[in-house]
Every structure is written in structure tokens, then in C-alpha cells.
Specification:
By secondary structure, this protein is of the alpha+beta class. It is built from 3 helices and 7 strands. The chain has a single domain, classed as START domain (Alpha-D-Glucose-1,6-Bisphosphate, Chain A, domain 4). A hairpin with a 5-residue loop joins strand 5 and strand 6. It is globular.
């Protein structure tokens, strides 16, 4: 099965350099990455090839992911692949200068098996499901 891609784009009134600094700094990922509560940067901070551990929490569920940076071209391109948790899932950011603003193109590529697992999960936590039956 081919990967499923989701693409989002928009413009922010911030310089491209500041946007790239934010998304490429693993310590700051909890500031913008949904459900990410903390990040542990890898020992090297050289860009491509770096690995970082991310921790996510949502509705009482916890998950850890390890990402490896696969695209690093300051200040325009940043991307990673998950090597632990959703193995093979890829996330890419392409930034474009637009005057004093930055256009952000974000693409997430998921293996269809990850989507099937998400669809199989109940929407409500178990204790709430019992009350709604």
C-alpha cells in the first residue's frame, strides 16, 4: 500500500529565520507540536542525521517517538522520519519567504497501517465508554 499524505499550508507574520529556528529546535517542539509534552534532543545538533526523543500525551494516553532528521536546509526545509512508534511516518516543512511573512507548507506521510490502527482505537477512554453504553 502507498503512503497516505496530508498537506497543510498557511502564512504567518514572522520572518523565515525565526520560523525555522522554532521548528528545528527539538527543545521547543512542545511549544508547537500538538500533544508533545517534552523532547529530549540527541547528543549531536548538526542537523541531518540527528535523532530526538519526543513524548506525547493525549487523553491520558502516553507515547514516545524517536525521530531522525532527514531534511535540513536552513532556513527553508526541515523534515524527519519516525523510527520508533509510527515507524516510517514522515513529516516535512517547506518554508517560503513572502515579504515580512513566511509561507509554511507542511506534509505528513503515513503508512496506511498506522491509520488502520488509529481507526481501530476507541474514541472515548475505557472508563467513559462504559458510561456511554
Amino acid at each position: 500500500m502507498r503512503p497516505v499524505s496530508f498537506t497543510y499550508h498557511g502564512t504567518v507574520g514572522v520572518s523565515i529565520d525565526r520560523v525555522f529556528e522554532l521548528i528545528a529546535d527539538p527543545v521547543r517542539m512542545p511549544e508547537w507540536l500538538p500533544n508533545c509534552t517534552f523532547a529530549v534532543p540527541g547528543p549531536n545538533r548538526k542537523g541531518k542525521g540527528d535523532r530526538h526523543r519526543l513524548h506525547f500525551e493525549r487523553n491520558g494516553r502516553k507515547a514516545d517517538a524517536v525521530i531522525e532528521i532527514i531534511e535540513y536546509v536552513p532556513p527553508t526545509t526541515y523534515g524527519w522520519v519516525e523510527i520508533i512508534h509510527r515507524r516510517g511516518a514522515k513529516t516535512f516543512f517547506k518554508l517560503e519567504f513572502q515579504g515580512g511573512s513566511t509561507r509554511i507548507n507542511h506534509e505528513a506521510r503515513l503508512d496506511p497501517r498506522h491509520l488502520a490502527r488509529l481507526a481501530a482505537r476507541p474514541v472515548l477512554p475505557e472508563e467513559k465508554r462504559a458510561r456511554h453504553v
